[in-house]
Amino acid sequence: MTATASGSPSHLLTMPMDWEAEFYAATDWERGAYVGGEDMADHLATFFDRVGVPDSVGSVGCGPAAAEFAVAEAYPDTEFHCYDIAPSVVAANREKAREEGLGNVHFAVDSLPDLAVDDEFDLVYCVAVLYFVEDVEDALRALYDRVAPGGHLVFTYPNSYLRAWVRDLPEGQKREAFSLVEAGENLLTYDDLEDVLGTRPRSYWTLVDARDEEYASRRAPAVFVPKRA
């Protein structure tokens, strides 16, 4: 399956902060995964091994794309199409891909809930993104619509345990970023996920043997949902 990562979004992500202006363009950000750190690349590779290596991956809200870069290098026959709202991180990622000669990983500006890209992917991957989306159910539908028949959607989502954690954070930009969660405006449950997607989700952390990791806590659930062929 082929897909094209190009163009600009027709709609911007509904967020409590401007990630381009307040984070990527204003800070010395590090190239890492915001949930799970360096382990996320190994977890994604384990997912490939257990459900089947996809021909194409669509990563939405990729940020620095640490896991995507690592897995793209290990699986050169899989095409990675990665999207983020922040033009500066997209530009930095494109430069890194060029410097490292990774022709199977591509980047473009796009965002939830109204994705401009209309391609389908064998795997749609969206980690540490829905926390910041107001129209979270519409975003879930948009993600699932991009999954090819027989493929999978992997994502994390905001819940009441994350809300309790946010309420304990000190005042500052990090707490501001989670303002939707703190206000309880975009919280989800397993039942909500099933209602929206029509399929009961399964634990991603359990499948990839990460259930006992500190980051795989009740406040950071990660799930996967198959799509019927």
Structure characterization notes:
This protein is α/β, with parallel strands linked by helices and 229 residues long. The protein has one domain: Rossmann fold, CATH 3.40.50. Helix content is 35%, strand content 17%. It has a seven-stranded mixed sheet with strand order 3-2-1-4-5-7-6. α2 crosses α3. The longest helix is centred in the first third of the chain and has 13 residues. The protein is globular, with a radius of gyration of 16 Å. The relative contact order is 0.17.
In brief, what are we looking at here?
The protein is of the alpha/beta class and 229 residues long. Helices cover 35% and strands 17% of the residues.
- Total strands: the figure is 7
Gap from first CA to last CA: 14 Å
Q: H/E element string? A: HHEHEHEEHEHHHHEHE
Low-confidence stretches: 1-14
Structural class estimated from helices and strands: alpha/beta
- Give the mean pLDDT: 89
CATH superfamily: Vaccinia Virus protein VP39
In percent terms, what proportion of residues is strand? 15-25%
Largest β sheet strand count, sense and barrel closure: 7 strands, mixed
- How would you write the strand order of the largest sheet? 3-2-1-4-5-7-6
Number of domains: 1
Radius of gyration: 16 Å
Shape: globular
Number of helices: 10
CATH architecture: 3-Layer(aba) Sandwich
